[in-house]
Amino acid sequence: MKKITAGRDNLGEFAPDFAHYNDDVLFGEVWANPVLAPHERSLITISALMAQGLFPQLESHFKMGKENGVTKDEIIALITQLAFYTGWPKAWSAFNLAKEIWKED
User: Fold this and answer.
1) I need a surface site. Which of 34, 36, 39, 48 has the fewest CB within 10 A?
2) Which domain holds residue 13?
């Protein structure tokens, strides 16, 4: 997985400790733990973000998920499954984001 610098890029000067935790701990250590593959971590993270309705973060994680090998068919199946547990409107919103990310697939 490529090194994440979003924390430092966006908050480095304003909240350097938070940027460190984001880039080095969450995306450095936690995402690097070999117990779960990046593909699995992406599916888990996407599920959690969709459940909470955090669509700006969901868009970023859709992109990361695609980089981690999440396919169009997998994301469609995941959003459909989650629609029944998280709510139909969240699924509509997630599908609108997903179809932009996976439009070329």
Assistant:
1) 34
2) 1-35
